[in-house]
Amino acid sequence: MVRAEPHSRTVRICARLGGETLLFKLPAILSDLVLGWLIYRAGRAKLGSGTAIGLMLLFLFNPAVLMDSAAWGQADSFFLVFLLLSILGASEQRFVRSAIFFALATLVKPQALIFTPVLLFAFYHHRAWKQLAVGALYGLGIFAVLAAPFFWNNGGIGGLIDLYKGTLSSYPYSTVNAFNLYALTDPLWASIDSMWLGITYRAWGFIFILVAVALAAYYSFKKDRKELSKSFFIGMVLITIVFVFGTKMHERYMYPALLLCLFTYIESRDRRFLTLFLGFTLTQYLNVGYTLAHLNAGNNPPSDGIVLVTAIANIALALYMLYVGYVVYVRKEIKPILPPAAAAEKYDADLELAEGMRPLPKSTSRIGLPKLQRKDWIWMLGITAVYAALALFHLGSAKAPETLWEPAASGESFVVDLGQSSQLERVNIFGGVGTGKFKLEFSQSPDTWSGPLDVNEDVGNVFIWKSQPLNVAARYVKLTVTSPGFTLNEMAFYEQGEAKHRFRSPALHLMVQLPKGASRPTCLMNNRSSRRIPGL
């Protein structure tokens, strides 16, 4: 009998875990390969095999694509396969096939409904009412058949409708880690009922959905209505405007724009869409990668320079996309990729450059510095102004808590009594110098605890607010030290509707700010010293 060594068991465990991770990510990775093949097939028919291979490789080895699928394992590529086949069907006037694939895309991910105008405009321009009816019948039938096993004994059609309603109404925040317009106006995860320019974020979301549909209709109806090759651009307009200016957006929702940029280039042959592809690649990679890094560390991205610059870049790219679409589809001005220069052209260019070279004049005096022109001053002042705005925006207050709590050992804990049961939306934590870990637990009574939330106080999280979403109903909150070494300056619990329960340095002093009519908290309990700290 051979006895397995400990390290061999470790290898088997790691291999099993690695296999499970690969199996979990495999649908997204295989979907990426299918999308790459679809890019190659469309590109070969319109541009030739060489260009088609290049476009396919641009997608398959795109860092934003690898980050979303291979690194994170998200299912966006799987959903995109059906969405792309639906738009391809519409562009080729195969409307029944388009409707079927759209139903499948909606079944996989309700966000496919954002692209509904693409199909509606195509059906309308070709007056394909019969195909619309047949496609809708087939689509709804396939949707019902595939959804039935999951909802037959789980509420039936009503349960399915409730699921989609819950999905569309979930995450009531201005932005859910999407680096868009609202990352500039408020910190991430701001309540959707907060005000900006006198209007709630919820209303802004509805307004920009209408704006997205109106812009899509403009490009669809302006010229060549029956030319459906611009369906890819219309889809890109919808998802880009909704992501950059809409609410409730996750960091990954811009992912379809990458694919649609490539297909728009294939159909239009305008090289500026490749520029957009590069720009959206950079912003999507930063958005997803930065968010994933912070989520792995147990927190959400702060409103720092990376978030603000990426948000500004997304807005600029969205405006540039609208401009390029106007030039290409309204004014019909195409900028193709320039062919490589011939040998004779290269020689003439080199000769012209050489003839323009002149020796420097001999002078005994020191050559002076070039004089700054008006445009130089404009550029310098403009760059300085942009940097100053980014550096000073959300810089913070000059005031900070003057007392702190520094636990000495693991297991120290205290209990916060909020005074009444509250539906907690998030907790904001303001830490000081030091590193360590603690956990928060929640309960309606001070006897049993549930829903632990682990919080890491890492290097770099000094004197900044960290926000953690909660979505839990509780009256009591228990903080237990897992690893000492950190300092806690202030903690604020937010219930839905922005009511705030705020605690400063709990071992020394308690301050509570409650909505009108709420009772005062009774105490904080320090388990290590077994003494009650009355609420102030």
TrEMBL record:
- Swiss-Prot/TrEMBL keywords: Cell membrane, Membrane, Transferase, Transmembrane, Transmembrane helix
In the record, the note on similarity to other proteins reads: Belongs to the glycosyltransferase 87 family.
Q: Where in the cell is it found?
A: Cell membrane
Kindly provide the name given to this protein in its UniProt entry: DUF2029 domain-containing protein
Q: Membrane-spanning residues where?
A: 47-65, 71-88, 100-125, 131-151, 163-183, 203-221, 228-246, 252-268, 273-293, 305-329, 377-396
Where mainly found? membrane
Q: Name one Pfam family in it.
A: GT87
Select a single GO molecular function from the record's annotations and give it. Answer: hexosyltransferase activity
The taxonomy runs:
Bacteria, Bacillati, Bacillota, Bacilli, Bacillales
Annotated membrane topology is: Multi-pass membrane protein
Q: Which organism is it from?
A: Paenibacillus sonchi
Q: Which superkingdom does the taxonomy of this entry point to?
A: Bacteria
GO cellular component, alphabetical, reads:
plasma membrane
